[in-house]
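Hi U.,

Before I forget, here's the chain from the pilot set. I'm dumping it here mostly so it's searchable later in email.
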Amino acid sequence: MPAAVCQCIRRGAAEWNDGVPMNAGASREWLSLVVRGRASVAPTIVEFTLALPDDSELPAFDPGAHLTLRTPAGLLRKYSLINPPGERNRYVIAVRRDANGGGGSVSMVDGLTTGAAIEVSVPENAFPLVGNARRYLFIAGGIGITPILGMVRHLCARRSAGERAPDFKLIYLTRSPADTAYRDELTSDLLRPLVDLHHDHGKPGEAFDPWPLLERPVAGTHVYCCGPRGLMDTVRDMTGHWPATSIHFESFGIGDTTLFEANRPFAIRLARSGATIEVAAEQTALEALHAHGCRVMSSCEAGSCGTCRTTYLAGDVEHRDLVLAEGEKADQIMVCVSRARGGVLELDL
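Structure:
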């Protein structure tokens, strides 16, 4: 590795394996799985069932867990597990085809067929379902239903097994009935009393207002939210008076990209070495840094955990994270999602 590049490696950086950046703190373990099935669950969403070649038992997981997959395009992407943890012989995920993304989801939906092999991490969990809740309030938007559906299925499985499980309510927001993933299941006799579906039909005046649900904190209730950034920002604003430990968010980059400028290529200058790294429009700053040997720590890669926080010294930054306070944005950036609007971004690396 060139000396100029070596100088940008940060203390405590994530471990690497075959050139792939790993989670902070430990190497990620990988499994070679086979696609056992795929099914359309909405116009742009495809469900994949994955298993070991011999259908033997897979590593365990908890509600809210996710997998990191090496997509057919060669990109690493995270997808929530939507089947209940009691199913140990398969992993089930759902992928929304995002034509404006980096190509990972497109390669999954268009190129991953039944019988194909895929490299998958063992499950990790950055969105765990706490076990001491009296009640759960789930708020999901669009493809944000995936981690929450896994939680709902887990709670229903516990009840079916005769166990006591906390009550829950699911609010699921989509554009229309046709765009609602798993609509038949969510409107079944079992779930209909526990699920409210809301469709805005693309009209701002029909958007769902969560304030009546969040106005008064309820002791023992935990709120879980996953969906577009606008939804999560709204829920975050409306729960500022709730105990911080009772509010939980997951994003995985699930955001309303119309809130941001179109991605432009830019350059990163490493202040400590003087090296310059080009970032393509379809790349994140984190991906470009990793490709050039800069082992910046990362975890969620969605702007929601704060692991990749980096000091910047110059540049016109568009902040896309869910972590930084306004006062921190003057010199801090989450390189997994935020980027420069063009030109050069100088980092303290």
